[in-house]
Backbone:
């Protein structure tokens, strides 16, 4: 009797074993394709090489400390539209942990953008959006400020050493990088990068552009800071400026960040 | 602060390259169909992005431009995508430190994939492409039968 039961059960057991084996094999997730995603910060040639402000001050920069946090890269679908703003829709998002105090003036005139950090073994794909916060530093030379700009300004034989401190905090969200190369496309075993770009010509203006250019019309220039110099030194916190100047600088802070040449959506924190 | 405005003004199919060659005893007609995508790029002030640099990326190689060019004085640029490369075509426009992207779904399959947040305009255009694809195919076989 037992032998008969076992004989009849043998095909069933075989089927069960095959099914379980197949389930085990099929159920194991295939090894995910991964690579390394790097995050850069870039003050561009304006910071590295200096430039002339809209009002004729030749500016050079010794240090430009900016504090970055909550950096997240996205494989956004649909592509993020910074003009519309809002949150990024993405199934894949990679967080770069930590707070990072970056000196955008670090390195020579032709130095590459600053490597803020990298995330290893992240899924391949197109990282076409990024968000980050600019927040107050809690340590180091920029402690208490989100952005500290240190440099020299020269015009018609007059030289001013300046330190301009911002307390403004923002969250910036941008879509795909706009520039010479297409960024964020990560292949198996490869490395892709994203960039947080900061346009300081939006703050000081650009002497190479006409005064009526929209960038110069919206920029603060340097004269408003030069007017505060004592013995050739300006050392200010922008929140201490007059209401109108401070309001203008707050607005400019919204537009300081970019993704290459692409605009980002700014939210006050 | 300048924002970039994009508009895909027209995506349509034309009987391109229609030619008629006359011989002593007959006529040979040929045609091919294609899609023309016309982009209009302007700043939010309405000022066209005259001379803006254009890079077109096909879906099969997002890293290498499939086509480069420049907007005309009215901020317009037209191109004919390769319909054998269906998917999301991306166009980057840059001018004087400003720029933007526009993403244009091309091909029949993208009609089904287009429900995830594409604009009504894009969906309409995708549907139009599908319809014209059928018409083009029908015309092709009609021509073969008549030959």
Residues:
């Amino acid at each position: 009797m037992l032998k008969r039961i076992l004989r009849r059960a043998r095909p069933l057991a075989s089927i069960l074993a095959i099914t379980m084996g197949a389930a085990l094999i099929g159920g194991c997730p295939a090894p995910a394709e991964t690579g390394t995603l790097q995050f850069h910060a870039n003050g561009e040639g304006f910071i590295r090489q200096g430039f002339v402000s809209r009002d004729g001050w030749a500016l050079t920069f010794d240090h430009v400390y900016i504090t970055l946090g909550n950096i997240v890269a996205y494989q956004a679908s649909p592509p993020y539209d910074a003009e519309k703003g809002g949150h990024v829709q993405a199934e894949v998002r990679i967080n770069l942990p930590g707070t990072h105090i970056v000196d955008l003036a670090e390195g020579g005139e032709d130095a590459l953008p600053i490597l803020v950090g990298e995330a290893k073994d992240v899924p391949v794909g197109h990282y076409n959006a990024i968000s980050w916060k600019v927040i107050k530093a809690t340590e180091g030379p920029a402690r208490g400020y989100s952005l500290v700009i240190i440099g020299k300004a020269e015009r018609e034989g007059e030289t001013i050493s300046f330190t301009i401190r911002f307390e403004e905090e923002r969250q910036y969200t941008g879509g795909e990088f706009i520039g010479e190369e297409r960024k964020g496309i990560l292949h198996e075993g490869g490395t892709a990068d994203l960039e947080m770009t900061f346009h300081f010509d939006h703050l000081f203006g650009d002497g190479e552009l006409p005064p009526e250019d929209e960038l110069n019309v919206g920029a603060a220039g340097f004269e408003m800071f030069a007017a505060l110099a004592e013995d050739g030194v300006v050392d200010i916190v922008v929140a201490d400026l007059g209401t109108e100047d401070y309001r203008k600088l707050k607005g400019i802070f919204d537009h300081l960040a970019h993704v290459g040449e692409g605009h980002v959506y700014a939210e006050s924190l | 602060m300048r924002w970039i405005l994009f508009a895909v003004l027209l995506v349509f199919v034309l009987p391109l390259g229609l030619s008629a060659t006359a011989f002593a005893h007959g006529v040979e007609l040929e045609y091919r169909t294609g899609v023309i995508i016309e982009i209009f790029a302007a700043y939010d002030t309405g000022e066209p992005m005259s001379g803006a640099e254009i890079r077109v990326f096909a879906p099969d190689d997002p890293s290498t431009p499939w086509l480069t060019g420049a907007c005309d004085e009215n901020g317009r640029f037209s191109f004919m995508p390769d319909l054998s490369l269906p998917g999301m075509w991306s166009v980057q426009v840059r001018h004087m430190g400003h720029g933007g992207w526009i993403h244009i779904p091309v091909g029949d399959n993208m009609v089904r994939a287009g429900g995830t947040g594409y604009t009504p305009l894009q969906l309409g255009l995708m549907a139009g492409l599908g319809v014209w694809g059928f018409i083009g195919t029908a015309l092709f076989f009609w021509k073969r039968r008549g030959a």
